[in-house]
Amino acid sequence: MQKTVPLEAGKFYHVYTRGNNKETVFRIRENYHHFLQLYRKYMAPYVNTYAYCLLPNHVHFLIQVKEEEALLWKGAAVPTMGKLVSVSHQLSHLLNAYTKAFNTVNDRTGSLFQNRFGRKEVTSEAYFTRLVYYIHFNPQHHGLLDDFSDWPHSSYHSILSKKQTNLQREEVLQWFGGRNWFENFHTENAADFSPISSLIEEDDL
């Protein structure tokens, strides 16, 4: 059983969850868009996002929790001066808000996601690099299509685009050495997860 890892200010994490019993959580295109809107509301103020992928029954994010001064409670009524926002609680708010909307539209009741989201601290440069690729490659890995770059619900094309984004686009591109190197790394490392295989659980794949 995976040990629960606290989400600490300044650190990088691979965050993931899936539907209960692998239930489909995104049935139509609008579901994906609504989830990202809620992510911008509940998560974007408190984390930097480097990569993501939404699949029919699970999601992956590579985030960095912002420094403590960015985690100060932004509510209209501050219960305690200097109180810090819990990013774990923000993730729960995100999943609960999405579940409520999903249940209303689909006339269902009960929880939609697993009770606990997975999180793993990203502790090395190699892990960060391969994790960006792993997240983008997920749709192809799961057999949803033949070329991961055709999947519309990941950060891959947003990172290559010049349109406005909440992603840490420039940081990712600089990390890989520019757009060409970013694309080449994804093309030349098809399905090679060996450097991080010990850090990816069976249920993550």
Task: List the keywords.
Alpha-Beta Plaits, 4-stranded antiparallel sheet, 14% strand
Polypeptide structure, described:
The protein has helices at residues 29-42, 87-106, 125-141, 156-160, 169-176, 179-188; strands at residues 12-18, 47-55, 58-65, 118-121. By secondary structure, it is an alpha+beta fold. The chain has a single domain (12-204), classed as Alpha-Beta Plaits, CATH 3.30.70. Strand 2 and strand 3 (58-65) form a beta hairpin. Helix 1 packs antiparallel against helix 2 (87-106) and helix 5 crosses helix 6. The protein is globular and about 45 Å long.
Topology:
Blueprint: E1 12-18, H1 29-42, E2 47-55, E3 58-65, H2 87-106, E4 118-121, H3 125-141, H4 156-160, H5 169-176, H6 179-188
Antiparallel strand pairs: 1-3, 1-4, 2-3
Helix pairs in contact: 1-2, 5-6
Summarize the structure.
Helices cover 36% and strands 14% of the residues. The protein is of the alpha+beta class.
Strand percentage lies at: 5-15%
Regarding CATH, which class?
A: Alpha Beta
User: Which bin fits the share of residues in helices?
Assistant: 25-40%
Q: Can you tell me the overall shape? A: globular
**What is the residue-mean pLDDT, rounded to a whole number?**
87
Protein name: Transposase
InterPro entries: Transposase_17 (IPR002686), Transposase_17_sf (IPR036515)
Domain Transposase IS200-like: 8-138
Organism: Rufibacter glacialis
